[in-house]
Every structure is written in C-alpha cells, then in structure tokens.
Amino acid sequence: MTAGYRRSAGSPRGAARKQELLELVTEDLAVNGLVDFSLRRAARAAGTTHKVLLYHFEGAEDLLRQAVFRLRQRRIDNALAAVAVPGGGLAAFVRTVWPTLVAEETGLQRVLDQAMGLAMHDPDRHRDLGREASGQYLPVLMAACPAGWSESRKRGMAAMVLATLRGFLLERLVGDVTSADAGFDALVTLLEAAES
Predict the structure, then answer these.
(1) Phi (first) and psi of residue 167, to 5 degrees
(2) Which of 4, 92, 154, 187 has the fewest C-beta atoms lying within 10 Å of its C-beta?
(3) Centroid of chain to Cα 178
(4) Residue 31 and residue 18: Cα distance in Å, rounded?
(5) Is residue 143 part of a domain?
(6) Helix 106-121 crosses helix 151-173 at what angle (to 10 degrees)?
(7) Per-residue pLDDT tens digits for 153-167
C-alpha cells in the first residue's frame, strides 16, 4: 500500500468512514459475540470487503480491540447515566451502578466476558483486551472515591472494587445469583465503613 493511499484514511471523510465501519462491526460483536470473529465476518457485517477494513484498521486484532473498547465504553456510559448526582462516594456509586450491570444487554456482557477470556487464554496475542479494560474502568471508580483519599488509596480501592464486581458478575453468569448478591451487599457495607 502506498503512503499516499494510506494517508487519505486520515482525512475527515476517511475518519468518518472508519467510525461508521467500526460501529457496524461493534454491533455485530454485540449480537454474535467473539466466537469465529474474523476480518471476513467483520467485512460482511459492515457491508464491505476485508480489504476496505485493512485500509482503515491495522488488521483483525486492531479492529477487535477497538470494537471491544467501544463496547466497554457503552457499559461505562450506561453506568454513569444511572448516577443521578456524582460525588456521593464510592459505596453510593457502586450501589447505584450495580443494577445497570446486572440488567445490561446480554450480548454486551457476553462479549466483554469473552474478551477477558481471550486475554487470559492467549495473553501474548490479546493482552490489550484485558489491560484496556482496567484502563477504562479504573479512572471512573477512582473519580467516585472520597476527595480526601490519597491517589494510591483511590487506585487500590478502585482495583479491588473492579476485581470484586467482575467476580460477582461471573458468579451470576454461572447461575449463583444468591451468593453474588450477598457478596455485593457485603462489599457495599465494607465500602461505607471505609468511607466513614
């Protein structure tokens, strides 16, 4: 591919087309999951060819990474929309967003679980799917922490909450709703105690 040909992908029109293609592929992932994801499947979902996708993306893994990032952002936006008044503390934030996490669209939850599974199964190839998850979620949780906490305490508490909520969501996924809900209640109680 010549430099001039590739350079036009960065034009406003090229950038808009890339975002349009990414949205179509993201919607396909939300419906069909990551199983059998390929550049050709993505091209069919986007109504184009795999060569067009390669013009806009560095390959299947780059496209997958960007689509999963977009799905995670959708989850974050849904959670933030549930918080009427920001600044109520970490416990209040977690209590408020939990119902949106357990009630969110099944496809979104499934794809994000599959992405984490890929990161664990083949970290050399899919490490970014896991790392980017923390990079997206931790700042949101840290922002909900009390202002008086140090940055290291905010980061530590946010990491603990993220890991714990992931565990509870997995418990619910395998059918142990009662244990997950009891654990969630205990988590909120501990957070309230830490904030008082």
Answers:
(1) -60, -45
(2) 4
(3) 25
(4) 20
(5) yes
(6) 110
(7) 999 999 999 999 988
